[in-house]
Amino acid sequence: MAKLYFSYATMNAGKSTLLLQASYNYRERGMRTAIFIASFDDRAGQGRISSRIGLSCEAIAFDGSDDLYRHIEALNGDGEGEIACVFIDEAQFLSQEQVWQLARVADRLHIPVMAYGLRTDFQGKLFPGSKALLAIADELREVRTICHCGRKATMVVRLGADGKVAKDGAQVEIGGNDKYVSYCRRHWDDIMNAE
């Protein structure tokens, strides 16, 4: 039985590395995968996933208007072989409807879907895609990384151009190690509530 999986973490936990490794495992065994990434995340180039340790691959760029069920259904029937697994990077950027579309891929097309993304933003608020995935995914997997104190990091702060912690702003601002730092809840709270 195919399932919808959501692997979530804070920044720099290795989510993209895990996605790329899992897809490679399928492909190494001659199985076809479909890999998607949010179109506006172009840090590695449009339609490309890259990890901090140097792994990368081409991906299908999606935006909020794309019907992922129809797209995957068309890929699965394009004559190039059935899709064995669908991978979604930056799943926090999915819409609620797209999360339901992915659930239908698992339920009706019988293709497992593995979504990887952030749970919360720099203000500690759920992303829309993450909220929907936490609500309906068949399996939730936490990918762990650590705070500077050694505790599990569950939160992230955003750094402004001046290097100081941003306490407000748009929920989405693409960036990596240069812009985001992961902390445990206690240190995140200390930083976000410092005068």
UniProtKB/TrEMBL annotation:
EC number of the protein: 2.7.1.21
Entry's Gene Ontology molecular function annotations: ATP binding; thymidine kinase activity; zinc ion binding
Top EC class for this record: transferase
Record SUPFAM superfamilies: Glucocorticoid receptor-like (DNA-binding domain), P-loop containing nucleoside triphosphate hydrolases
Catalytic residue positions: E90 (proton acceptor)
PANTHER family, alphabetized: THYMIDINE KINASE, THYMIDINE KINASE, CYTOSOLIC
UniProt record similarity statement: Belongs to the thymidine kinase family.
HAMAP family according to UniProt: Thymidine_kinase (MF_00124)
Protein name: Thymidine kinase
Gene: tdk
